[in-house]
Amino acid sequence: MTADLVINNGIVVTPDAAFPASVAIKDGKVIAVGAADAMPAAHETLDASGLHILPGAIDVHVHFRDPGYPNKEDWESGTAAAAFGGVTTVFDMPNTIPPTGNGTILAEKHAIAAAKAHVDFGLYGLLGEDTIDNVPELIAGGVIGFKLYMGNTFGKIPSPSTGAMLEAFEVVAETGKRISLHAETNSIMERRQTRLTQAGRREPLAHLDSRPAVVAVEAVSRACILSEWTGARIHILHISSADELRPLREAKARGVDVTGESCPQYLFLSTDDYSRFGGVIRVNPPVREKDNQEPIFAALQDGTIDMIATDHAPHTPEEKTRNDIWAVDCGFPGVETQMPAMLTQVNAGRMSISDYVRWSAYNPARHWGLYPRKGAIQPGADADLALVDLSLEWVVDDAKIQSRSKISPWHGRKVKGLPVHTIVRGRFVMRDRTLVAGTKGWGRSVHAIQKMPAPDVRNAGKTMRAVTNGFRPSPTTESAA
Ligand code: DOR
Ligand code: ZN
Question: Counting atoms of ligand 1 from 1, which one is nearest the CA of 331?
Fold first, then answer.
Protein backbone atom coordinates (compact mmCIF):
# COMPACT_ATOMS: atom_id res chain seq x y z
CA MET A 1 0.00 0.00 0.00
CA THR A 2 1.29 3.47 -0.86
CA ALA A 3 0.45 6.32 1.48
CA ASP A 4 -0.49 9.74 0.11
CA LEU A 5 1.80 11.53 2.54
CA VAL A 6 4.39 10.54 5.12
CA ILE A 7 5.58 13.17 7.58
CA ASN A 8 9.06 12.41 8.92
CA ASN A 9 11.30 13.79 11.66
CA GLY A 10 8.60 15.60 13.61
CA ILE A 11 7.53 15.25 17.24
CA VAL A 12 4.02 13.87 17.62
CA VAL A 13 2.05 15.34 20.50
CA THR A 14 -0.78 13.56 22.32
CA PRO A 15 -2.52 14.53 25.58
CA ASP A 16 -0.06 12.28 27.40
CA ALA A 17 3.25 12.53 25.59
CA ALA A 18 5.39 14.12 22.93
CA PHE A 19 7.66 11.70 21.04
CA PRO A 20 9.58 11.57 17.76
CA ALA A 21 7.55 9.67 15.17
CA SER A 22 6.56 9.59 11.54
CA VAL A 23 2.92 9.86 10.49
CA ALA A 24 1.52 8.18 7.38
CA ILE A 25 -1.70 9.44 5.79
CA LYS A 26 -3.92 7.88 3.16
CA ASP A 27 -7.37 8.89 1.92
CA GLY A 28 -7.58 11.62 4.51
CA LYS A 29 -6.84 9.39 7.47
CA VAL A 30 -3.85 8.58 9.61
CA ILE A 31 -2.82 5.01 8.77
CA ALA A 32 0.39 4.68 10.79
CA VAL A 33 2.34 6.43 13.53
CA GLY A 34 5.80 5.11 14.30
CA ALA A 35 9.41 4.77 13.30
CA ALA A 36 10.37 6.19 9.90
CA ASP A 37 11.56 2.81 8.66
CA ALA A 38 8.19 1.26 9.51
CA MET A 39 6.28 3.70 7.28
CA PRO A 40 4.81 2.60 3.97
CA ALA A 41 6.03 4.08 0.70
CA ALA A 42 4.43 7.43 -0.05
CA HIS A 43 3.56 9.67 -2.98
CA GLU A 44 4.83 12.63 -0.99
CA THR A 45 7.03 13.03 2.05
CA LEU A 46 7.36 16.06 4.27
CA ASP A 47 10.42 16.72 6.39
CA ALA A 48 9.06 18.05 9.66
CA SER A 49 12.44 18.52 11.35
CA GLY A 50 12.07 21.03 14.16
CA LEU A 51 8.28 20.83 14.10
CA HIS A 52 5.74 19.45 16.55
CA ILE A 53 2.78 17.61 15.05
CA LEU A 54 -0.41 18.42 16.94
CA PRO A 55 -3.97 17.30 16.33
CA GLY A 56 -5.57 20.33 14.69
CA ALA A 57 -7.34 22.53 17.20
CA ILE A 58 -11.12 22.20 17.53
CA ASP A 59 -12.58 25.61 18.34
CA VAL A 60 -16.11 25.02 19.62
CA HIS A 61 -16.96 28.73 19.65
CA VAL A 62 -16.65 30.98 16.62
CA HIS A 63 -18.89 33.55 14.93
CA PHE A 64 -18.29 33.51 11.19
CA ARG A 65 -21.24 35.86 10.52
CA ASP A 66 -22.40 34.14 7.37
CA PRO A 67 -25.15 34.64 6.33
CA GLY A 68 -25.79 38.18 7.44
CA TYR A 69 -22.72 40.28 8.11
CA PRO A 70 -20.32 40.07 5.14
CA ASN A 71 -18.61 43.27 6.24
CA LYS A 72 -17.47 41.51 9.42
CA GLU A 73 -16.60 37.99 8.17
CA ASP A 74 -17.80 35.13 6.02
CA TRP A 75 -17.14 31.41 5.85
CA GLU A 76 -14.21 31.89 3.49
CA SER A 77 -12.34 34.52 5.49
CA GLY A 78 -13.22 32.95 8.85
CA THR A 79 -12.00 29.49 7.90
CA ALA A 80 -8.87 30.95 6.26
CA ALA A 81 -8.15 32.50 9.66
CA ALA A 82 -8.76 29.11 11.26
CA ALA A 83 -6.35 27.44 8.83
CA PHE A 84 -3.65 29.98 9.72
CA GLY A 85 -4.33 29.35 13.38
CA GLY A 86 -3.86 25.58 13.19
CA VAL A 87 -7.60 25.11 13.74
CA THR A 88 -9.05 22.24 11.70
CA THR A 89 -12.63 22.20 13.02
CA VAL A 90 -14.83 25.10 14.12
CA PHE A 91 -18.32 25.20 15.61
CA ASP A 92 -20.22 28.23 14.39
CA MET A 93 -22.73 30.14 16.50
CA PRO A 94 -26.34 30.76 15.42
CA ASN A 95 -26.48 34.58 15.81
CA THR A 96 -26.35 35.09 12.07
CA ILE A 97 -29.15 36.61 9.96
CA PRO A 98 -31.55 34.92 10.11
CA PRO A 99 -30.64 33.14 13.36
CA THR A 100 -30.11 29.39 12.89
CA GLY A 101 -33.41 28.46 14.48
CA ASN A 102 -35.14 26.06 12.10
CA GLY A 103 -34.35 23.32 9.61
CA THR A 104 -34.65 25.51 6.52
CA ILE A 105 -32.28 28.16 7.78
CA LEU A 106 -29.89 25.47 8.99
CA ALA A 107 -29.87 23.85 5.54
CA GLU A 108 -29.07 27.22 3.95
CA LYS A 109 -26.17 27.76 6.33
CA HIS A 110 -24.86 24.26 5.72
CA ALA A 111 -24.84 24.97 1.99
CA ILE A 112 -23.00 28.26 2.42
CA ALA A 113 -20.41 26.76 4.74
CA ALA A 114 -19.85 23.71 2.53
CA ALA A 115 -19.24 25.94 -0.47
CA LYS A 116 -16.72 28.22 1.25
CA ALA A 117 -15.04 26.50 4.19
CA HIS A 118 -11.33 25.64 4.19
CA VAL A 119 -11.68 23.61 7.41
CA ASP A 120 -14.27 21.28 8.90
CA PHE A 121 -17.17 22.72 10.85
CA GLY A 122 -20.20 22.08 13.00
CA LEU A 123 -23.24 24.35 13.19
CA TYR A 124 -25.14 25.23 16.34
CA GLY A 125 -28.91 25.43 16.36
CA LEU A 126 -30.55 28.23 18.30
CA LEU A 127 -32.41 27.16 21.42
CA GLY A 128 -34.64 30.11 22.28
CA GLU A 129 -38.05 30.82 23.71
CA ASP A 130 -39.67 30.20 20.31
CA THR A 131 -37.52 27.46 18.80
CA ILE A 132 -38.06 24.60 21.25
CA ASP A 133 -40.50 22.94 18.88
CA ASN A 134 -37.85 23.07 16.16
CA VAL A 135 -35.41 20.83 18.02
CA PRO A 136 -36.33 17.69 16.02
CA GLU A 137 -35.85 19.41 12.64
CA LEU A 138 -32.60 20.98 13.80
CA ILE A 139 -31.35 17.57 14.91
CA ALA A 140 -32.48 16.00 11.63
CA GLY A 141 -30.71 18.79 9.76
CA GLY A 142 -27.42 18.01 11.47
CA VAL A 143 -26.70 20.48 14.25
CA ILE A 144 -23.58 19.76 16.28
CA GLY A 145 -25.36 21.03 19.39
CA PHE A 146 -27.47 23.92 20.64
CA LYS A 147 -26.76 27.45 21.78
CA LEU A 148 -28.88 29.14 24.40
CA TYR A 149 -28.39 32.81 25.25
CA MET A 150 -29.10 33.34 28.95
CA GLY A 151 -28.05 36.91 28.33
CA ASN A 152 -28.14 39.38 25.50
CA THR A 153 -25.09 39.96 23.39
CA PHE A 154 -24.33 40.82 19.79
CA GLY A 155 -27.34 40.04 17.58
CA LYS A 156 -29.73 40.77 20.46
CA ILE A 157 -31.18 37.29 20.48
CA PRO A 158 -33.73 37.42 23.30
CA SER A 159 -32.83 35.28 26.28
CA PRO A 160 -35.47 32.71 27.19
CA SER A 161 -37.16 32.76 30.57
CA THR A 162 -36.03 30.15 33.09
CA GLY A 163 -39.33 28.36 32.39
CA ALA A 164 -38.60 28.12 28.70
CA MET A 165 -35.02 27.13 29.46
CA LEU A 166 -36.18 24.21 31.62
CA GLU A 167 -38.51 23.04 28.84
CA ALA A 168 -35.74 23.43 26.28
CA PHE A 169 -33.40 21.35 28.45
CA GLU A 170 -36.09 18.68 28.82
CA VAL A 171 -36.48 18.42 25.07
CA VAL A 172 -32.77 18.38 24.27
CA ALA A 173 -31.87 16.03 27.15
CA GLU A 174 -33.33 13.02 25.39
CA THR A 175 -31.38 13.75 22.20
CA GLY A 176 -28.01 13.53 23.99
CA LYS A 177 -26.78 16.71 22.29
CA ARG A 178 -24.86 19.29 24.29
CA ILE A 179 -26.27 22.78 24.93
CA SER A 180 -23.72 25.59 24.95
CA LEU A 181 -24.67 28.45 27.20
CA HIS A 182 -23.96 32.12 27.09
CA ALA A 183 -24.13 32.11 30.88
CA GLU A 184 -24.75 35.73 31.85
CA THR A 185 -28.05 36.63 33.50
CA ASN A 186 -29.86 39.16 31.38
CA SER A 187 -32.03 40.89 33.96
CA ILE A 188 -29.05 41.78 36.16
CA MET A 189 -26.98 43.31 33.40
CA GLU A 190 -29.84 45.08 31.62
CA ARG A 191 -30.84 46.80 34.82
CA ARG A 192 -27.28 47.84 35.56
CA GLN A 193 -26.63 49.04 32.04
CA THR A 194 -29.75 51.22 32.14
CA ARG A 195 -28.70 52.72 35.46
CA LEU A 196 -25.09 53.21 34.35
CA THR A 197 -26.28 55.00 31.21
CA GLN A 198 -28.59 57.23 33.24
CA ALA A 199 -25.67 58.01 35.53
CA GLY A 200 -23.67 59.18 32.53
CA ARG A 201 -21.20 56.31 32.43
CA ARG A 202 -20.08 55.80 28.83
CA GLU A 203 -16.41 54.90 29.08
CA PRO A 204 -15.07 51.37 28.43
CA LEU A 205 -14.94 50.28 32.09
CA ALA A 206 -18.67 50.99 32.43
CA HIS A 207 -19.16 47.83 30.37
CA LEU A 208 -17.41 45.77 33.04
CA ASP A 209 -19.47 47.47 35.74
CA SER A 210 -22.65 46.40 33.99
CA ARG A 211 -21.56 42.76 34.07
CA PRO A 212 -19.78 41.94 37.35
CA ALA A 213 -18.87 38.28 37.84
CA VAL A 214 -22.05 37.58 39.78
CA VAL A 215 -23.86 37.83 36.43
CA ALA A 216 -21.99 34.72 35.35
CA VAL A 217 -22.01 33.01 38.75
CA GLU A 218 -25.80 33.20 38.92
CA ALA A 219 -26.23 31.95 35.36
CA VAL A 220 -23.75 29.07 35.68
CA SER A 221 -25.36 27.94 38.93
CA ARG A 222 -28.88 28.08 37.48
CA ALA A 223 -27.86 26.28 34.31
CA CYS A 224 -26.21 23.50 36.30
CA ILE A 225 -29.35 23.06 38.41
CA LEU A 226 -31.52 22.70 35.30
CA SER A 227 -28.99 20.34 33.74
CA GLU A 228 -28.93 18.21 36.87
CA TRP A 229 -32.73 18.06 36.97
CA THR A 230 -33.21 17.15 33.30
CA GLY A 231 -30.02 15.29 32.45
CA ALA A 232 -29.32 17.69 29.58
CA ARG A 233 -25.62 17.96 28.74
CA ILE A 234 -24.36 21.52 28.91
CA HIS A 235 -21.26 23.50 28.08
CA ILE A 236 -20.36 26.79 29.76
CA LEU A 237 -18.96 29.15 27.16
CA HIS A 238 -16.26 31.74 27.80
CA ILE A 239 -15.54 31.36 31.52
CA SER A 240 -14.22 34.77 32.51
CA SER A 241 -14.04 34.83 36.29
CA ALA A 242 -12.61 32.92 39.23
CA ASP A 243 -16.01 33.09 40.90
CA GLU A 244 -17.70 30.91 38.29
CA LEU A 245 -15.36 28.05 39.10
CA ARG A 246 -17.04 27.11 42.36
CA PRO A 247 -20.51 26.38 40.91
CA LEU A 248 -18.84 24.60 38.02
CA ARG A 249 -16.68 22.44 40.31
CA GLU A 250 -19.61 21.67 42.58
CA ALA A 251 -21.81 20.65 39.66
CA LYS A 252 -19.11 18.39 38.27
CA ALA A 253 -18.67 16.83 41.70
CA ARG A 254 -22.42 16.08 41.73
CA GLY A 255 -22.08 14.27 38.42
CA VAL A 256 -23.66 16.93 36.21
CA ASP A 257 -22.52 16.49 32.60
CA VAL A 258 -21.18 20.02 32.30
CA THR A 259 -18.06 21.10 30.45
CA GLY A 260 -16.43 24.50 30.33
CA GLU A 261 -14.22 26.58 28.12
CA SER A 262 -12.16 29.70 28.64
CA CYS A 263 -10.63 31.92 25.98
CA PRO A 264 -7.31 33.72 25.54
CA GLN A 265 -8.89 37.09 26.39
CA TYR A 266 -9.61 35.90 29.94
CA LEU A 267 -6.13 34.44 30.39
CA PHE A 268 -4.06 37.23 28.87
CA LEU A 269 -6.04 40.49 29.08
CA SER A 270 -7.25 42.35 32.15
CA THR A 271 -8.65 45.68 33.34
CA ASP A 272 -5.10 47.01 32.95
CA ASP A 273 -5.70 46.93 29.18
CA TYR A 274 -8.91 48.98 28.97
CA SER A 275 -7.23 52.37 28.74
CA ARG A 276 -4.90 51.18 25.99
CA PHE A 277 -7.54 49.51 23.82
CA GLY A 278 -10.68 51.47 24.64
CA GLY A 279 -13.81 49.98 23.07
CA VAL A 280 -11.77 47.47 21.07
CA ILE A 281 -11.57 45.34 24.21
CA ARG A 282 -15.35 45.31 24.70
CA VAL A 283 -16.50 41.70 24.74
CA ASN A 284 -19.17 39.63 26.47
CA PRO A 285 -18.43 38.49 29.09
CA PRO A 286 -16.06 41.37 29.78
CA VAL A 287 -12.33 41.15 30.30
CA ARG A 288 -11.98 41.30 34.10
CA GLU A 289 -9.56 42.10 36.90
CA LYS A 290 -6.13 40.48 36.63
CA ASP A 291 -6.59 38.31 39.69
CA ASN A 292 -9.01 36.13 37.69
CA GLN A 293 -6.30 34.94 35.32
CA GLU A 294 -4.36 32.61 37.60
CA PRO A 295 -7.43 30.72 38.92
CA ILE A 296 -8.71 30.23 35.36
CA PHE A 297 -5.34 28.88 34.32
CA ALA A 298 -5.24 26.58 37.34
CA ALA A 299 -8.78 25.38 36.52
CA LEU A 300 -7.61 24.32 33.08
CA GLN A 301 -4.74 22.47 34.72
CA ASP A 302 -6.98 20.65 37.20
CA GLY A 303 -9.70 19.86 34.67
CA THR A 304 -12.45 22.11 36.03
CA ILE A 305 -12.26 23.94 32.72
CA ASP A 306 -12.05 21.43 29.90
CA MET A 307 -11.02 23.37 26.84
CA ILE A 308 -9.79 26.49 25.13
CA ALA A 309 -12.04 28.16 22.58
CA THR A 310 -11.92 31.66 21.16
CA ASP A 311 -15.36 33.26 20.80
CA HIS A 312 -13.91 34.62 17.53
CA ALA A 313 -16.25 37.61 17.14
CA PRO A 314 -15.22 39.84 14.25
CA HIS A 315 -16.47 43.40 13.76
CA THR A 316 -15.27 46.31 11.63
CA PRO A 317 -12.94 49.05 12.90
CA GLU A 318 -15.80 51.58 12.70
CA GLU A 319 -18.01 49.34 14.85
CA LYS A 320 -15.24 48.89 17.42
CA THR A 321 -14.12 52.52 17.83
CA ARG A 322 -17.32 54.43 18.60
CA ASN A 323 -16.99 56.92 21.45
CA ASP A 324 -19.93 55.69 23.47
CA ILE A 325 -19.04 52.25 24.92
CA TRP A 326 -22.69 51.14 24.72
CA ALA A 327 -22.60 51.67 20.94
CA VAL A 328 -19.46 49.57 20.41
CA ASP A 329 -20.06 46.06 19.04
CA CYS A 330 -18.86 43.32 21.41
CA GLY A 331 -16.09 40.88 20.60
CA PHE A 332 -13.00 40.60 18.43
CA PRO A 333 -11.30 37.97 16.28
CA GLY A 334 -9.26 35.19 17.89
CA VAL A 335 -9.34 31.95 15.90
CA GLU A 336 -6.02 32.76 14.23
CA THR A 337 -4.13 33.88 17.32
CA GLN A 338 -5.28 31.39 19.97
CA MET A 339 -2.69 28.72 19.19
CA PRO A 340 0.30 31.10 19.04
CA ALA A 341 -0.85 32.80 22.26
CA MET A 342 -1.10 29.45 24.03
CA LEU A 343 2.15 28.05 22.59
CA THR A 344 3.86 31.14 23.98
CA GLN A 345 2.84 29.85 27.41
CA VAL A 346 4.23 26.42 26.56
CA ASN A 347 7.51 28.11 25.70
CA ALA A 348 7.38 30.02 28.97
CA GLY A 349 7.07 26.73 30.86
CA ARG A 350 3.59 27.41 32.26
CA MET A 351 2.21 24.21 30.80
CA SER A 352 3.28 21.30 28.65
CA ILE A 353 2.49 20.99 24.99
CA SER A 354 0.46 17.88 25.89
CA ASP A 355 -1.66 20.02 28.22
CA TYR A 356 -2.33 22.30 25.29
CA VAL A 357 -3.40 19.43 23.06
CA ARG A 358 -5.70 18.18 25.79
CA TRP A 359 -7.46 21.58 25.96
CA SER A 360 -7.41 22.49 22.27
CA ALA A 361 -8.25 19.20 20.56
CA TYR A 362 -8.62 16.07 22.70
CA ASN A 363 -11.23 17.36 25.17
CA PRO A 364 -13.34 19.23 22.59
CA ALA A 365 -13.41 16.08 20.45
CA ARG A 366 -14.34 13.86 23.39
CA HIS A 367 -17.06 16.04 24.81
CA TRP A 368 -18.68 16.62 21.45
CA GLY A 369 -18.67 12.97 20.38
CA LEU A 370 -16.00 13.32 17.71
CA TYR A 371 -13.19 11.37 19.37
CA PRO A 372 -11.23 9.48 18.08
CA ARG A 373 -12.10 10.55 14.52
CA LYS A 374 -11.02 14.05 15.52
CA GLY A 375 -8.63 15.21 18.23
CA ALA A 376 -6.25 12.25 17.95
CA ILE A 377 -3.19 11.26 15.96
CA GLN A 378 -3.59 7.51 15.63
CA PRO A 379 -4.54 5.05 12.92
CA GLY A 380 -8.13 5.58 11.85
CA ALA A 381 -8.29 9.22 12.90
CA ASP A 382 -8.91 11.97 10.39
CA ALA A 383 -5.55 13.46 9.38
CA ASP A 384 -6.28 16.88 10.88
CA LEU A 385 -2.91 18.24 11.88
CA ALA A 386 -1.24 21.46 12.93
CA LEU A 387 2.52 21.41 12.39
CA VAL A 388 3.98 24.02 14.68
CA ASP A 389 7.39 25.58 15.08
CA LEU A 390 7.81 26.41 18.75
CA SER A 391 10.83 28.61 18.04
CA LEU A 392 9.14 30.94 15.55
CA GLU A 393 8.39 34.42 16.85
CA TRP A 394 5.61 36.56 15.48
CA VAL A 395 4.18 39.96 16.26
CA VAL A 396 0.43 39.99 15.66
CA ASP A 397 -0.46 42.61 13.10
CA ASP A 398 -4.18 43.19 12.65
CA ALA A 399 -3.62 44.39 9.08
CA LYS A 400 -2.13 41.04 8.09
CA ILE A 401 -4.47 38.55 9.66
CA GLN A 402 -6.87 36.53 7.54
CA SER A 403 -10.00 37.56 9.33
CA ARG A 404 -11.91 40.35 7.66
CA SER A 405 -11.96 42.06 11.05
CA LYS A 406 -8.75 44.04 11.12
CA ILE A 407 -9.03 45.22 14.70
CA SER A 408 -8.29 43.41 17.95
CA PRO A 409 -6.56 43.75 21.29
CA TRP A 410 -4.04 41.15 20.06
CA HIS A 411 -2.46 43.74 17.79
CA GLY A 412 1.22 44.20 18.59
CA ARG A 413 1.39 41.14 20.86
CA LYS A 414 4.64 39.19 20.64
CA VAL A 415 4.15 35.45 20.52
CA LYS A 416 6.47 32.49 20.18
CA GLY A 417 5.23 29.27 18.60
CA LEU A 418 3.38 29.29 15.31
CA PRO A 419 1.62 26.79 13.06
CA VAL A 420 3.48 26.58 9.76
CA HIS A 421 1.32 23.94 8.05
CA THR A 422 -2.31 22.95 8.64
CA ILE A 423 -3.71 19.72 7.22
CA VAL A 424 -7.43 18.91 7.09
CA ARG A 425 -8.34 15.29 6.28
CA GLY A 426 -4.98 14.75 4.65
CA ARG A 427 -4.95 17.89 2.58
CA PHE A 428 -2.78 20.94 3.21
CA VAL A 429 -5.03 23.97 3.58
CA MET A 430 -2.25 26.23 4.90
CA ARG A 431 1.34 25.49 3.90
CA ASP A 432 4.42 27.55 4.80
CA ARG A 433 2.14 30.29 6.18
CA THR A 434 0.31 30.51 2.86
CA LEU A 435 -3.28 29.56 2.12
CA VAL A 436 -3.34 26.65 -0.32
CA ALA A 437 -5.21 27.46 -3.52
CA GLY A 438 -8.25 25.35 -4.29
CA THR A 439 -9.10 24.45 -0.69
CA LYS A 440 -12.15 26.70 -0.48
CA GLY A 441 -15.07 24.29 -0.10
CA TRP A 442 -12.92 21.46 1.27
CA GLY A 443 -14.43 21.80 4.74
CA ARG A 444 -17.22 19.40 5.69
CA SER A 445 -19.78 19.35 8.45
CA VAL A 446 -18.69 16.96 11.18
CA HIS A 447 -22.20 16.22 12.44
CA ALA A 448 -22.29 13.00 10.43
CA ILE A 449 -19.45 11.52 12.47
CA GLN A 450 -20.69 12.75 15.84
CA LYS A 451 -21.51 10.00 18.34
CA MET A 452 -22.76 11.36 21.65
CA PRO A 453 -23.11 8.79 24.46
CA ALA A 454 -26.64 7.64 25.33
CA PRO A 455 -28.46 10.32 27.29
CA ASP A 456 -29.09 10.04 31.02
CA VAL A 457 -32.55 11.64 31.13
CA ARG A 458 -33.85 12.55 34.57
CA ASN A 459 -37.34 13.44 35.79
CA ALA A 460 -38.80 12.31 32.48
CA GLY A 461 -42.23 11.90 34.05
CA LYS A 462 -42.30 15.53 35.13
CA THR A 463 -41.44 17.29 31.89
CA MET A 464 -43.75 19.88 30.37
CA ARG A 465 -44.61 17.42 27.63
CA ALA A 466 -45.28 14.56 30.06
CA VAL A 467 -47.57 16.56 32.32
CA THR A 468 -49.53 18.12 29.46
CA ASN A 469 -49.78 14.88 27.49
CA GLY A 470 -47.75 16.39 24.68
CA PHE A 471 -50.09 19.37 24.27
CA ARG A 472 -48.55 22.14 22.18
CA PRO A 473 -50.22 25.55 22.12
CA SER A 474 -50.97 27.09 18.75
CA PRO A 475 -49.69 30.66 18.42
CA THR A 476 -53.23 31.94 19.07
CA THR A 477 -53.72 29.86 22.23
CA GLU A 478 -50.42 31.19 23.50
CA SER A 479 -51.25 34.85 22.98
CA ALA A 480 -54.72 34.35 24.49
CA ALA A 481 -53.22 32.84 27.65
O1 DOR B 1 -18.58 39.65 22.75
C2 DOR B 1 -19.29 38.82 22.21
N3 DOR B 1 -19.52 38.84 20.90
N4 DOR B 1 -19.84 37.89 22.97
C5 DOR B 1 -20.77 37.06 22.47
O6 DOR B 1 -21.24 36.24 23.19
C7 DOR B 1 -21.22 37.19 21.09
C8 DOR B 1 -20.18 37.78 20.26
C9 DOR B 1 -20.63 38.22 18.89
O10 DOR B 1 -21.36 37.49 18.23
O11 DOR B 1 -20.19 39.29 18.47
ZN1 ZN C 1 -19.73 33.87 21.33
Answer: 1
